[in-house]
């Protein structure tokens, strides 16, 4: 696995524990695109595979809601292709637009129809209309292809984690492990103390012998 793509792998297999640890470290880009996989982000993988908890975790930690692949696909396109209606519901509930068009002009609903995902198609008809109404009422244009749907982008977000017990335990254990330099220093210190005590004992023994000789 290429360096920096740890989030992609964790999202693709639904490994929330590892994903949470990577996010807590803070050195991985949650929106990094994998050029070898058509510029997929971790969110694309989570939506393709159907891992709702991973999706929530990514969105709660700064993931863009509608990043684009090479063909213009958003995570909603990936979910529609695979029939992940529960993922589409999660995106809709998170106020992520589910009707953006790809480079060929297709929306996720078009993709659902093409791949025979009837339930997804029915849901997207309703979701699209709800989102269009919401934008109209807010005085925004219905088409939003120029927006990336970064959740609450106008406000600083507090990072939220799953804080599962297994993650807590692993982090706790990792804090107990000494690094090699620490261990080496401890061993050296112990040897010095031992040698010092040994020298003291030798000096004391010699003094006792000397006293006996004089006696």
From TrEMBL:
Residues 131-174, 187-215 are annotated as: Disordered. SMART domains: ANK. Residues 206-215 have a biased composition (Basic residues). It comes from the Eukaryota. InterPro entries: Ank_Repeat/CDKN_Inhibitor (IPR050776), Ankyrin_rpt (IPR002110), Ankyrin_rpt-contain_sf (IPR036770). PROSITE patterns: ANK_REP_REGION, ANK_REPEAT. It holds the Pfam family Ank_2. Residues 151-174 have a biased composition (Basic and acidic residues). This is Uncharacterized protein. It comes from Owenia fusiformis (Polychaete worm). The lineage of its organism: Eukaryota, Metazoa, Spiralia, Lophotrochozoa, Annelida.
